[in-house]
Amino acid sequence: MDKVDARLTEIAHYLRVLILQSTTEAGSGHPTSSLSAVELMAGLMFGESAEGKPFFRFDPNDPKHPNNDRLIFSKGHASPLFYSLWAAAGQLSLNDMLTYRKLDSPLEGHPTPRFAFTEAATGSLGQGLGVGVGMALNAKYLDKLPYRTFVLLGDSEMTEGSQWEAVQIAAHYKLNNLVGILDVNRLGQRGETMYGHDIESYARRVEAFGWETILVQDGHDFQQVIPALTDALNAQKPLMIIARTFKGKGVPLMENLDDWHGKPLNAEQGKQALRELGHATADAPARLAEPERLQPAKSDPQKLEDPAYEAGGQEATRVAYGRALARLGAAHPELVVLDAEVSNSTMADIFRKKFPDRFFEMYVAEQNMVSTGLGLAVRGKLVFVSTFAAFLVRAYDQVRMARYSDANLKFCGSHAGVSIGEDGPSQMGLEDIAFFRTILDSVVLYPSDAMSTERLVEEAARHHGMVYLRTTRAKTPLLYDARETFPIGGCKVLRESSADRATLVAAGITLHEALKAADTLQKQGISVRVIDLYSVKPLDEETLRRAAKETGVIITVEDHAAQGGIGEAVLSAVAATPCLVHKLAVTRLPRSGTPRELLELENIDEKAVVRAVQGLVAS
Amino acid sequence: MDKVDARLTEIAHYLRVLILQSTTEAGSGHPTSSLSAVELMAGLMFGESAEGKPFFRFDPNDPKHPNNDRLIFSKGHASPLFYSLWAAAGQLSLNDMLTYRKLDSPLEGHPTPRFAFTEAATGSLGQGLGVGVGMALNAKYLDKLPYRTFVLLGDSEMTEGSQWEAVQIAAHYKLNNLVGILDVNRLGQRGETMYGHDIESYARRVEAFGWETILVQDGHDFQQVIPALTDALNAQKPLMIIARTFKGKGVPLMENLDDWHGKPLNAEQGKQALRELGHATADAPARLAEPERLQPAKSDPQKLEDPAYEAGGQEATRVAYGRALARLGAAHPELVVLDAEVSNSTMADIFRKKFPDRFFEMYVAEQNMVSTGLGLAVRGKLVFVSTFAAFLVRAYDQVRMARYSDANLKFCGSHAGVSIGEDGPSQMGLEDIAFFRTILDSVVLYPSDAMSTERLVEEAARHHGMVYLRTTRAKTPLLYDARETFPIGGCKVLRESSADRATLVAAGITLHEALKAADTLQKQGISVRVIDLYSVKPLDEETLRRAAKETGVIITVEDHAAQGGIGEAVLSAVAATPCLVHKLAVTRLPRSGTPRELLELENIDEKAVVRAVQGLVAS
């Protein structure tokens, strides 16, 4: 054993001790899944090639340095190893490690950004590689920096389709700065994985998708791990190191055994295991190699132009979305747009044509699109991802997880609702408001005309956090001019009088139905208030409560399911105000038909609104 | 050209004419994506091997016959071709075809079961193969029938990760009765696909995943298509025919050209195209080969045992879920359980141990699990799919689409809410009630103790449709005995008096917090009603309205986001009843901690309920 190996072996030993100590103290966690990757990760972070070239370069005093190498634990349950690595690097004490999984500790059960060295929250399997794709795309095409992105992958999670979305897109974009490290420890949660220890079967598939692979027959032998990492320095393509390892390695009680997934040793077992492992100390923290002090390529922002639409005209909000992106693109050099092969429908195409270098075609793979968007966002980009609202559903788990990464990420779902017409229910987004509302601190915007869309895209760009924007397929009449502002959390009262006997609350396509209904009702001598609820979350509770008080009746109209949408958002807002709230929403099985027929079928068109008001305010 | 070819060529010609006529009349639809697969599908449905062996056997007078071969258009936008095929088979007239995409026509923009020959609704890409896996699993392992399942796939949709989930599991289960037919027409919606016309690149990947492949260099040449289909008769593994085709084939105006995705010809262009194609008639409907008259293997149901729990004990609802499945398994020979590699957590394992032949391990691939479940359900199985509530989010698009297939499909999401504790937010299902409530006619059940769980699993099995059951990780005290019934749409009033000053509505883990709070408040002289809302959708509006009227204040308590959950369901139910509704729900960023600490952090524990009541009913 040469000197380098001895140092790494010592570090590996120290990592094992910390993994056991922290999980035994916590009384939960995944020691076995951590132990299998000890040598792979120790070699990566603290090893170097025979020529002295480090594999991993990172300034722990500046974790956000733009040229740090990136390390993502896609198998987030191996967090005890992740934290132990940073302890070995001198960034956590043993006492810190013993706070693992405790309420006020940043060392959560699965890594989150509460711990400074976490690049992105993981723990829902099969997402880390997609995040890595975003970081690698950023290095290669946007920031033009030499940093590399490493992703530790579990073998169980390779069955997630999202992995193969990430694998294919990495090959497509020739990301030779992306390295996957696949820890094939054979055992999943419930038993053996689909391919067991057959590392060749993984290699065949990854290579068929256009990657290089390096096989490591014994992932616990530094004599094999270091050469693999050395070879990876010269990758011409995205590269995956595929290593045969053992779950629970180093602890006979659990090594390579069933029924030890996600289970810590108890205090007694822990003591025994530590005795068997022998004493370990970190005499001095292991040093990480310094990154080069390079900064991203940057271009200067230009002045933001105002949107221009002709009064009295009409335009689809999805077109305004595309135009707004193109307009904002000049003012925000960090703005990047992703789309899932439907940019000529979401109209993100308008941005692509103007800024082709900042548009990435993500093909029909929505899950990876969102993870990649997250990776770009974490690297400082202002990212908009778009597809049909109906297909964005595909990526809701990635959306959920992006929230736990504190992501600054913008989503656009187009073709919302039954009003898309003939294409039928599979293409109709009807659950999107409900889902995005559940995301903590999310913003949900739903513009009704082109001008408000343009302004709301600006607001989305300005707001740090998760923003969802819902757009409509059909053209809608222009309601606002360029002087109007649309702050997040606001609304627009479009019809109001002291004689109002009911309030109509709507957004998007149904706002226009509500306005027509209000005009019809006015002719019948019934005044109704009309509110454009362009900001569904947060919403303008004050204005809604005032309307509740003053008119006593609120009717919500939405091209969305009756649950979790505008209706229930309004109900929540006025829950403390005595008032009758009546919901009009999509409540029949949608189908193909003309937009008008479908609005009528679902009782969310002008006539249905008129009927509802007449029924409720009948003297 | 031999005689068989001439007949198929004539059919192909007829299909092209119908595709153009129907889409031109509709003024929308996807003629180009239909035209590329004309020969592949005509050959499949109406062709035979040189030895006279038909490729496809189906009794059109009995579309549900258990031994019919199955044909799924995963590229659902090619519906004009799908309907034209059935027209060629004598099942639709030209007049029927001209109703395409009209409101009262069963011929929707994307196939739905409103058309009798649709196996499952498609239109969200990348789902048909997973459905096919379910049908092929059924044939091979359950019904033990020789029918085969064919799935027409688009090249664009091969980028969906869900495809690779289906591909891998088909190989794992050795489904040599499943045939994919990949229509590589080079063009996606927005332009060229990732691999263009490189059919070898698809073959490499599909083979690496363990399938056989057959390449067809010209998918419009019956001399190539028929031999490929003949070879497919002898598949030893799942098999994919990968054919190079041209989008818009046969219509010079659109053939192999950009910007013709999803666009029909206008009336003038349509006339010209039909002139160029020349006249086509179906002198006689093309005959489909008869299926063998075989019926599924069946076993007799046994009597359903009653669940047994000791009064005063406690058990986790997830354990009761597993026990209920095992109990129902004997009474329902058609009951099948799928799980995504966490059956020892969801406790579906209890069923697996008793009925290993009716349990299918779906590995960590939730999307395909749901599609496969749908395929099994369509073939008459009573299917329960389970994973963590947090990870079921991964398959929400498949859930959404299953609804449009009128599926009889049951979902169980375990480990709901922050009360799972130390594992942290990535593992906490907090959006599930909101999402499942949006699904039209869905049933959402949320039991609080083992006994009600057992009964609700029975109810779920009895109910035809989509049912979601939410279970809890922790043990909870037993509340009910075996005599109690739990009808869907009901609730249980657990505390009630004429002096009630508020009503607590809860389910699952928080019901127990509400009960403790009620007892504490009672000691302070404040009587409150407590309702176990085990049926969140539909819910017992009458009892809730009565509580609203009688107590004036409702406090909902849920381990779920504040949007779309129990709180808003109750708000909707009492929207017409003057009453103050106050929601307690998860409103802070969740993290790792003990279950008790997290319930406290989120203000959904006993103390928070007591505080809320005190604040609201203070005289």
UniProtKB/TrEMBL annotation, chains A, B:
Any GO BP annotation: glyceraldehyde-3-phosphate metabolic process
The entry's keywords: Calcium, Magnesium, Metal-binding, Thiamine pyrophosphate, Transferase
Protein name: Transketolase
CDD domains registered for this protein in UniProt: TPP_PYR_DXS_TK_like, TPP_TK
Transferase found in the keyword field: yes
Organism: Desulfonatronum thiosulfatophilum
Gene Ontology annotations for the cellular component aspect, listed alphabetically: cytoplasm
A Pfam family hit: Transketolase_C
Domain annotation Transketolase-like pyrimidine-binding: ranges: 315-478
An example Gene Ontology molecular-function term: thiamine pyrophosphate binding
Residue segments, region Disordered: 285-307
Listed Basic and acidic residues bias regions: 289-306
Quaternary state and interactors: Homodimer.
Cofactor(s) in the UniProt record: Ca(2+); thiamine diphosphate; Mn(2+); Mg(2+)
Recorded family membership: Belongs to the transketolase family.
The organism's place on the tree of life at top rank: Bacteria
